[in-house]
Write a structure and sequence with these properties.
Length: about 250
């Protein structure tokens, strides 16, 4: 078992979900609280039985949001993605023609892709380089999503993490450069290592990360309040291990 997984199992929660730590340009969100107390947040009706919480940007532009299927077999009609779409499964499952995406899976659909979602439930962290297009579905082409199970104990050995410094490695997701989005996995196993990241959000996947001075455990998200990418500073917290996913427009 990787050290960052052991650290994640050992750490305890001491941060309130409403705590907005760090610079004023960013928000800290507890995804555990989102799924257990969803009615405490300001959702809007996206589709029948599907609600959306905008975290940055706006519905009609590129944005970061959380999707909530309020019924057990939620669905979204066929739609086209002109730019890259990123989906992280917070809790539940999402299903389309490419398969079933379980909790802790992140997948990236490339520009020119599209899908119809059915039989889905739970909460999903979304990043759209361009909002879903329900009109131009004839433009959908053949594609293969990039799918990564972030709970896989072999994640950091299965993918080509590159050493950046002692105790610091990173993996750049191989995304289409025309899609308007990039993704990076950051692994820190030394308390002295630090990574600079410029993007729109950082999600802690394992261990305990110090992001811009805020100590965040797994399932904590730091997201920019505007759509413009912002600089983040990432270190391991006291446990000495941290694994995070960063997404940038």
């Amino acid at each position: 078992m990787p050290f960052w997984v052991a650290a994640a199992l050992a750490c305890t929660t001491d941060q309130d979900s409403t705590d907005l730590q760090g610079p004023s340009s960013k928000t800290v969100l507890d995804l555990v609280d989102v799924k257990t107390n969803p009615t405490s947040y300001e959702w809007f009706d996206f589709r029948p039985n599907v609600q959306k919480l905008i975290l940055s940007g706006a519905a009609e532009t590129e944005h970061v949001a959380i999707l909530w299927y309020t019924v057990a077999d939620g669905s979204v009609g066929l739609h086209f993605h002109s730019k890259t779409e990123s989906v992280y499964v917070i809790d539940g499952t999402q299903t389309d023609a490419k398969g079933v995406y379980a909790t802790s899976t992140v997948y990236f659909n490339p520009p020119g892709s599209g899908h119809q979602i059915s039989g889905s439930s739970g909460f999903f962290l979304l990043a759209y380089a361009s909002p879903p297009d329900f009109a131009n579905t004839a433009s959908i082409g053949e594609y293969t999503p990039l799918r990564i199970d972030t709970s896989d104990p072999e994640l950091t050995t299965k993918y080509p993490f590159e050493a950046k410094a002692t105790g610091l490695r990173a993996f750049e997701a191989p995304l289409d450069s025309t899609g308007g989005m990039s993704g990076q996995f950051i692994e820190i196993t030394s308390a002295g290592a630090e990574q600079a990241f410029t993007g729109n959000y950082l999600l802690v996947l394992g261990g305990r990360c110090d992001i811009d001075g805020a100590e965040l455990e797994a399932q904590r998200l730091m997201v920019t309040k505007t759509i413009e990418p912002q600089p983040f500073r990432v270190k391991a917290a006291a446990e000495g291990a941290c694994l995070a996913l960063g997404v940038s427009f």
